[in-house]
């Protein structure tokens, strides 16, 4: 018999408790022993309707770390109180499960080492991609595999907004409003649409795949705020969809880790991940390519991932499941975005005059950048400008930025050039 303390009674916390009550016998059988929820702690517990017999209720979440619970489940969110709770609990020799991606991405180095030293279990399956078992895949099934790359659609909010722009012809602002009305985006959506949520998740995957300390502060982050409806349309004409992806891959002696919008060929499986769904694509040197697909967020999906950690905990009880990240090779560095390579989508507004295309292409050629595809559209009526859309060859990021700087200075080119990476199927 082991005792569980649940800290945080939001959407995930409520779903977890309901799930455990409904399936307790089955979960206990899978654990090989019985368990009980003996404590529920939430800072506003007095304002929440909790009608569960024989469970201690508390508004002091930190007190859970000093309780007689064997396992603390942190569902508070954020990196302040949650960090204090998890650190204190592990220091007291308790095992912890968290769904907090920001906590793991920003403080994982410290918490992994502490858990390793204290020989406690630290589960975080729910921190990345909800019900998709990518954490256990990396820490169990793929332990002896050399990971070449991990890429995926790991933020459902961004994916939903881009889908609304693609299939419903909505503007970015209208698509965002629709996401907010359905509860897919917060009133302040910056964390999602700015790419920070995805950056936390890809940081965690990078840590596990390559045994490095958290790269979060060095991750290149781009959101979807600059994507316009015309880019969606032009990409479609060229045989692509625009998606927001997280990517980490081994690049010689460095790790390339970034999140940003991409053009994905319609033949690629990731292009068909729609709505709020998530998908993670992993490439290994032996097993090849595998894709995990499912619900990446939501109370039930996240609660399900937490339960999988509870079962895992029962097998690891009193023994660390985390190899210290601090044992990693410090010579492995995160490469600068300027050192990365990609094909690029360019959307250029130019005056409708003879020779403008030649000016643009000759400027690109001067940087040894060739064009794989190009389309020229009818002038936009209001501005009397022609949109020129191009796909470049595989080129260095710093080089493309230098070329675009010169193109933007041309007399017949107007405004900022739209620049979006093209997803490489080998990534």
CATH homologous superfamily identity of the largest domain: NAD(P)-binding Rossmann-like Domain
Taken in chain order, the helices and strands follow as EHEEEHEHEHEHHHHEHEEEEHEEHEEEHE
- Would you tell me which CATH topology of the largest domain applies? Rossmann fold
Helical amount: 25-40%
Number of domains: 3
Assembly category? single chain
Characterize the biggest β-sheet: 12 strands, mixed
C-alpha Rg, in Å? 24 Å
Which CATH C-level class of the largest domain is it? Answer: Alpha Beta
Descriptive report:
With 427 residues, the protein is α/β, with parallel strands linked by helices. It has 3 domains: 2-130 and 301-327, Rossmann fold; 143-295, Dihydrodipicolinate Reductase, domain 2, CATH 3.30.360; 340-422, Alpha-Beta Plaits (2-Layer Sandwich). Helix content is 35%, strand content 27%. It contains 12 helices and 18 strands. Helix 2 (81-91) links the parallel strand 4 (71-74) and strand 5 (95-98). The longest helix has 21 residues, at 11-31.
Keywords:
Alpha-Beta Plaits; 12-stranded mixed beta sheet; 18 strands; alpha/beta; 427 residues; Rossmann fold; 6-stranded parallel beta sheet; Dihydrodipicolinate Reductase, domain 2
